[in-house]
Design brief:
The structure holds 3 protein chains of 3 kinds. By secondary structure, chain A is of the alpha/beta class. Chain A contains 18 helices and 14 strands. Chain C is globular. Classes of the chains: A alpha/beta, B mainly alpha, C mainly alpha.
Chain lengths: 434, 352, 281
């Protein structure tokens, strides 16, 4: 008899477990009983940056970024909290695996109210966001709203623009008697190669390099290529332009114009540039600006990316569709993206790490270093190729590891002409899953 | 959250319980109810003289484990088998796909890669660890002055575990300025790229695993001290040299511990995760440990169905290998209770 | 292992010392390396080669490392996920181990084999469903998934404590039974206190595995406010990969409590380890 009760108990438990697992997938029922689901036609989103005493509670906000970016964001957030004393913003600075963490939080029902999202990753996450309303005219360009929209709805409010330019060590140019590049016209890729050769000198631990290891993500555009076809359904890594870019990168390594894998291991290339060991730093984004104060005694300036390469990244703030405090969250988003204080904190003063999206704040950006060609960033923000958006960026990035593993761009030895089509095929398989 | 749970949750929330405690309360309530029911049921059975008090007490106490077993082991295992036959991305419902996941697995080059990486590590590292820790234990067993200091020093590395250990060794194996290559440079050798080279990153992980052999050393030391002196004295009388004594007395006596250690180390090696995670699979996936590949599939790409299938395949592999090692133990493990004892088969020629 | 006195013994002794010292250097060096890198500036690290003695002792590295990551918060979280599991494991495994050791009833043999068999199960098999389970229980992004299961016993420690209790004298509880004491009280008042050394060993082992546990916090925790030290260090490695000195400082800080515990409770450590390796008695 005792065995019977024991068995009965276990059956009870197993059924409890199975039922618990079975019915929990769809709804985040706790949130639906606690808070009303926010309506997307709330006009508060398109107002100016009004402080409101009626807003209260907590807003959770997740973002990624380097130290300089986090510092700037924290500044903007505290100015919001000052203007809205009843609202507390709980910040989650996620330093590693941002997209994975976001996905896990969304899957687990613990998504933050507001999430920083890059335009390139937006499609994979749009299903977790609420559409927002915005008056596009406050932004510096209509394309900003487009880059954050899908199927006609705006899923994240444009927040900051991060184009790429090239930083140059002016002293090195002068020392090697190389004429300085144009501040407004991008140099060609052949000119880049040529100048790199002239700037490279020395051996061993004191060797000075023309440039840092080039990144395909920037240079593919310099050669007129892209990652995907215009309709984003196919990978175009096997196109001749992409392969030309890859071969160019390999050439710079083989000619010793950039540090090789051993030399660069565990080293920060930005630090090397600041120390004067790199002549032209091509992966220069606005988040590097605060560090330029650490430049060790040489003149530097900014010029456009060679071949109009590089891509501009637009980041936006998205609102979780399960947010429990949508009113405060929306006000927060509006403030961060459309108030001068917040936009200047991230893009108009010494802590700036990007170009503001707010038209009225863009002018402040160029004044950060008045004697440097910050206009190069502004021009890039207009002209550069926008980042390409995909849904399964995590999985796709994993396939792209093969570029580093198998070709001389990284540690491999196979010909890029062979590997790139293989990678393109694998990516196409992933794209076909949806 | 499941409907039942969330209603209990809202109940407590309405009562104003602190937010940090809220996630615990629904679970606590349900579990308390279950145990209470069980307790009352056993009390009833005892009252009706169907069950002894002793039996009731036993089952009440052991039910603590049984509940946990059902809830955290059996239930999940059953669910895991089920999901392995579905395609499930968590935010949507599971879709039954039959054997698809297993079919995909057999065509997945990364599956094979992660298996070969894990095997490579297990087959090389485990025997090396066992042999090395045993050899060190023999050394530590000598009655020398200050041996306790040495024992402590050899044990200390085991205190640096997991993430911290990997962080340290990524630095130690840095090709430019790391400890290992600096040492090699002193000897006039240009060290390899270690974690930036596809051929040398796994050897680096294996070397790293040897740093912590001190842990097993302690286990062997305890075992060595259990060996009866009389056996050695008998060997002395027969005129055995030190090495013969090790071969014919020490090894057989300690073989059960060696065996147990080999099995647990092997099972642990199959499940290595942190090393793979910290360097994201290593250059060209040379350190793509199976457990990390599983994690990638389940928690980075949200392919829960495929991840579950991978988990079961791992389980089966571990079972097979454990069974193999168990069967092989008949050849080399000596138990005191064996009738007449089964000594090691091969007897080496006498060494001068 | 005792050896015969005489010339043979002496020569082996002299061979042993160099080996011991060489090995000790090999084992100790990475430690010293870690500590020394944590006290240096980046460029000093770049040029120091094999040297271990820092030129200036930059304690500021520690200050920086501990402020850049919210160390205090991580420490509290790690303590919570260490202390509570110790408590839970000790109580539950002692109770269950006692039951298996001293309450011989029908079915206990079978159940015990079942307990032992769970030791063979790799965590990966239950990892995904447990994630879903905790999701349904509303415990995601909290410390509870790491704490709650420990209160339900764990096969290895149940086995360990069962062995311990089984070896205690047979008639120990007879007097109490005759007096009509409940078995629970017998456990609480007699057996639990008697097993202090074993419990300490268990406590030490649970400490080490909880303090350094990585995969569970990785899966269950997302918010910074609940991260444990191991997660924090992994994140640190991601963002500050090139700031080796800060990384090493953080690694030292995380390892320090384990080292301190070891020196304070050496016997408990050793006992725990010998239990791990001992044959079934």
């Amino acid at each position: 008899m005792k065995k019977w009760s024991f068995i009965a108990m276990s059956l009870l438990l197993v059924s409890l477990v199975v039922s618990a697992c079975g019915s929990g997938n769809n709804s985040n029922s706790a949130t639906s009983t606690a808070a009303p689901s926010s309506d997307s036609s709330n006009p508060a989103a398109s107002e100016g940056s009004g402080a409101s005493a009626s807003l209260k509670g907590k807003v959770t906000f997740a973002y990624w970024g380097a130290q300089s970016e986090a510092d700037a964001i924290k500044q903007a957030v505290s100015s919001f909290e000052n203007a809205n004393p009843n609202v507390k913003v709980e910040q989650q600075w996620i330093q590693k695996d941002y997209l994975t963490k976001l996905q896990t939080m969304i899957a687990g029902g613990t998504a933050p109210d507001v999430m920083l999202i890059s335009g390139g990753d937006l499609p994979g996450f749009a299903s977790a966001f609420q559409p927002l309303q915005a008056d596009g005219s406050v932004f510096s360009s209509p394309t900003l709203v487009d880059s954050m929209s899908m199927d006609g709805s705006l899923y994240a409010m444009p927040f900051v623009i991060k184009p790429k330019v090239m930083a140059i060590n002016v002293d090195l140019f002068e020392k090697n008697q190389v004429p300085l590049p144009s501040p407004t016209e991008p140099m060609t890729t052949e000119q880049f190669l040529d100048i790199s050769k002239k700037l490279t000198s020395g051996e061993g631990a004191s060797k000075i390099f023309g440039s840092e290891p080039l990144w395909l993500g920037n240079w593919i555009y310099a050669f007129g290529g892209q990652y995907y076809s215009d309709d984003l359904t196919k990978s175009t890594l096997d196109a001749p332009e992409a392969i030309a870019a890859a071969e160019f990168i390999v050439k710079t390594k083989q000619d010793g114009l950039v540090p090789n894998d051993t030399e660069k291991k565990g080293q920060s290339m930005t630090d090397w540039f600041l120390a004067g060991r790199i002549g032209m730093y091509t992966d220069f984004g606005p988040w590097n600006l605060p560090q330029m104060a650490d430049v060790k005694g040489f003149k530097w300036d900014l010029v456009p990316f060679p071949g109009n390469g590089g891509s501009k990244e637009v980041n936006g703030l998205a609102l979780s569709k399960d947010s429990k405090n949508a009113d405060a969250a929306k006000a927060f988003i509006t403030y961060m993206t459309q108030s001068e204080e917040a936009q200047k904190a991230i893009g108009g003063n010494k802590s700036a790490y990007g170009i503001p999206v707010l038209a009225s704040a863009t002018g402040a950006f160029e004044t950060i270093f008045p004697d440097k060609n910050l206009k190069a960033f502004v021009l890039a923000a207009e002209k550069q190729h926008a980042q390409e958006a995909q849904k399964r960026t995590n999985e796709i990035n994993n396939e792209m590891k093969a570029i580093d593993d198998k070709t001389p761009i990284g540690i491999g030895k196979q010909d890029v002409k062979e590997v790139f089509p293989q990678v393109a095929e694998k990516i196409n398989k992933i794209l076909q899953q949806d | 959250m499941n409907g039942l749970i969330s209603s209990i949750y809202s109940f407590y929330e309405g009562m104003g319980m602190p937010a940090a405690l809220l996630p615990l309360l629904p679970f606590l309530t349900l579990i308390a109810a279950v145990f209470l029911a069980f307790y009352l049921a056993t009390r009833l059975l005892v009252k009706k003289k169907i069950m002894h008090e002793k039996t009731a007490s036993f089952y009440r106490f052991v039910s603590v484990w049984i509940v946990g077993f059902l809830l955290f082991t059996v239930g999940p295992m059953i669910f895991s088998i089920y999901i392995s036959f579905t395609k499930w991305e968590v935010v949507s419902d599971p879709q039954w796909t039959g054997l698809d996941n297993y079919r995909t697995m057999f065509q997945d080059s990364l599956f094979y890669k992660s298996l070969s990486v894990t095997f490579y590590y297990t087959i090389v590292s485990v025997p090396l660890q066992v042999v090395l820790s045993f050899a060190i234990a023999l050394l530590m067993n000598l009655r020398l002055r200050g041996i306790y200091v040495f024992r402590t020093i050899y044990y200390l590395p085991t205190l640096v575990q997991g993430v911290a250990q990997m962080v340290l060794f990524i630095w130690i194996f840095n090709p430019n300025v790391g400890l290992v290559n600096s040492m090699l440079r002193l000897a006039g050798v240009e060290g390899p790229g270690w974690f930036s080279s596809p051929h040398w990153s796994m050897p680096a992980v294996i070397i790293m695993s040897l740093w912590t052999v001190g842990g097993n050393m302690i286990i062997y030391l305890a075992g060595l001290s259990d060996i009866p002196r009389s056996l050695y004295e008998a060997a002395d009388i027969d005129g055995a040299t030190a090495s013969r004594k090790v071969w014919h007395v020490t090894l057989p006596q300690i073989s059960p511990i060696l065996f147990f250690n080999a099995v647990t180390s092997m099972i642990g090696a199959f499940q290595t995760f942190t090393q793979g995670f910290m360097i994201e699979g290593g250059p060209d996936n040379s350190v793509l440990f199976y457990a990390y590949y599983l994690y990638q599939n389940a928690f980075m790409w949200f392919k829960m169905g495929y991840g579950s299938a991978l988990a079961w395949v791992l389980f089966v592999i571990i079972l097979i290998f454990t069974a193999l090692v168990f069967r092989s133990s008949a050849l080399w493990v000596y138990y005191e209770t064996d009738q007449g004892g089964r000594r090691k088969r091969r007897v080496r020629a006498t060494r001068p | 292992m005792s050896a015969p006195q005489g010339r043979k013994h002496k020569s082996r002794k002299w061979l042993a010392y160099p080996l011991l010292f060489a090995g000790a250097a090999l084992f100790l060096y990475p430690f010293l390396w870690m500590i020394s890198a944590s006290l240096r500036s980046l460029e000093e690290i770049a040029r120091s080669g094999m040297g271990v003695w820092p030129e200036h002792w930059r304690w500021s590295n520690y200050a920086k490392a501990l402020t850049v990551m919210p160390f205090g918060r991580y420490l509290v979280n790690t303590l919570l996920t260490t202390v509570f599991p110790i408590l839970g494991t000790v109580l539950s495994c002692s109770l269950v181990g006692y039951a298996f050791a001293r309450l011989k009833v029908r079915g206990s043999g079978f159940l015990f084999v079942l307990v032992l068999s769970t030791m063979l199960l790799p965590g990966e098999v239950t990892m995904i469903p447990r994630f879903i389970l905790f999701k349904n229980l509303g415990m995601l992004d909290s410390l509870y998934p790491m704490i709650v299961p420990s209160f339900f016993g764990s096969a290895f420690y149940i086995f360990l404590l069962r062995q311990f209790y089984a070896r205690l004298p047979v008639g120990l509880e007879e007097a109490a039974i005759i007096d009509g004491c409940s078995y629970f009280k017998i456990w609480l008042k007699i057996f639990l206190p008697l097993s202090k050394p074993a419990l300490m060993a268990v406590g030490v082992m649970v400490f080490m595995s909880s303090w350094n546990s990585f995969m569970d916090p990785l899966i269950y925790i997302n918010s910074d406010k609940w991260k444990t030290l191991t997660l924090g260090l992994a994140g640190f490695q991601g963002t500050y990969a090139t700031d080796t000195n800060l990384l090493m400082a953080a690694a030292v800080v995380i390892t320090l409590p384990c080292i301190v515990l070891f020196f304070a409770a050496q016997r408990a450590f050793m006992e725990g380890l010998t239990f791990s390796g001992s044959k079934e008695s």
